[in-house]
Amino acid sequence: MKLSTSFIAVALAFSSAASASASEVQERGILDNLKPLVSSTGLQLLTTKLTLLAHARQFLKFSQLSDGTRAFGSKGHNATVNYIKTLLDATRYYDTELQTFPYLFSSGEATFAVDNSAVESQWFTYGPAGDITAQIVPVANLGCDAADYPAEVEGKIAFISRGTCEFGLKVALAGAAKAAGAIIYNNQPAAVNGGTLGAPERPEVGPYVPVASISGDSAKTILDQIAAGATLTGALHVDATTETRYTSNVIATTKGGDKNNIVFAGGHTDSVPAGPGINDDGSGTITILDIALRLPLFKVNNAVRFGFWTAEEFGLVGSEHYVTSLPAEEAQKIALYLNFDMVASPNYGYFIYDGDGSAFNLTGPAGSDHIEKTFEDFFKSKKVISAPTEFSGRSDYGPFLDVGIPAGGLFTGAEGKKTAEEAKWWGGEAGVDYDICYHKKCDDLSNLNTEAWVLNSKAAAHSIATYARSLNGIPRTKKASVANNRVAALSYDDRRHYSCGHKIESS
How would you classify the pairing of strands 94-114 and 334-340? Predict the structure, then answer.
């Protein structure tokens, strides 16, 4: 279907009107009935690189409001949320809402040096900020008992071995002994990875002090020097924030279409604290935002809902909150969910969630196989090879799977390595990460492959238009209880590792 320029101009002007009288509302209803039924061809035609990049530039500007990040609850993230809702409200095609709730934010980084020589170190979740330059004092045994901390540790940096008891207990005991800071070194040669103090505070034991971890190899060098009689000075710097932040999902549902058969599409609006997140997941968020702003040119048979999720990077927090807050009768109205998380990776692959389980033996709810085939057929029509990616639930589609809602979506790769075969299919560099800036500061405008982004955006438009017209092939079965949600049962620390994870298969 080809849309005339005059029709598009009139429809856009109508959709963006700022206010309407009762008679205008009636006229709007008449005009809505005159709109063409949404089609894949029509919606794809409206997808352009220029509009996608224009939104991306805005997202990057928002990140600059909070030192280069759009982590949830930051000024950059709040500006992103406001931008999305303002644009959607202006169309007057949607009923929109902000779903606002509190969630714990904890992020930081640590550096450590000994006598001005840098030692690789890592921050512990919940560890407090601080700057300490002081003598390093080894702690006896494993630092799991107050008696392990000698009197001379007061005002110094307690040097503690990993082992037996929790990291948080060791740090609280160091605080109780009036140490200025602490270093926990691994009891193995390698570094401590993914360390956490386990809880925001332990007042029953003692106050937390600034802390970092180092490898066992680094610790051995330090301990050998101290044993030989050296007095070593450590410089520990920790930049960290642990606080409860209020944050919001943006939910937008078309005023038209069958509300008992909702086609749902989503992506997450937040970045990791380390960077602006223009690919992860600015690309997916912008894809569905751009589609949502074009959809008012059409009418739909089935209602379309867009979910712009917060705090995905902290463990699918926004999508899980939405699903677990949803009354059972409302969950039943959602026919399917489409997820778009990282769809413009620079060394991209065209990956589709493995809804039928044929590649990874993880099958989605009935209908997920149909969604996978819808995407496969799209790429075949463009003479492009696609490949499956694991349907593990480690992105915002996960909470929907847990309640039996069929789902699917697209992904262009994160920290995994592109294979030689994939390089033949799609170009790019074999043996290199799909996204070399994944979860890093460099995830900016230069980290986008616009060719892949445009094609994936057209694929998203195709899927939304297809199901907004008809749900043929999608069974409308009874949904499961929200009590089955996997992510909701995880601890804060465990769920931090339950986001943006995708295993891929190329053959």
Answer: unpaired
Give me the CATH number covering residue 191: 3.50.30.30
Token pair for residue 418?
Answer: 């592109």
Mean pLDDT of successive 10-residue stretches along the chain, which has 507 residues: 38 40 56 90 98 98 98 98 98 98 96 97 96 98 98 98 96 98 96 88 97 98 98 98 97 98 98 97 98 98 98 96 95 98 98 97 96 98 97 93 96 96 98 97 98 98 98 89 74 77 42
CATH at 269:
3.40.630.10
Backbone angles phi, psi at 314, to 5 degrees: -105, 15
Residues 44 and 13 both lie in one domain: no
Cis peptide bond prior to 444, omega within 30° of 0:
no
Using a cut of 0.85, tell me whether the model's pTM lies above it. yes
The tokens of 84 are what? 């999305």
Give the angle subtended at the CA of 372 by the CAs of 368 and 375, to the nearest 5°: 140
Q: For 338-412, where are the alpha helices, taking DSSP H only?
A: 368-381, 398-402
Domain of 20 in residue numbering reads as 1-35
Does residue 281 belong to any structural domain of this protein? yes
Residues forming the active site: 312
Is residue 101 assigned to a domain?
Answer: no
Bridge-partner residues for 114, per DSSP? 117, 234
Nearest-angstrom CA–CA distance, 50 and 450: 10
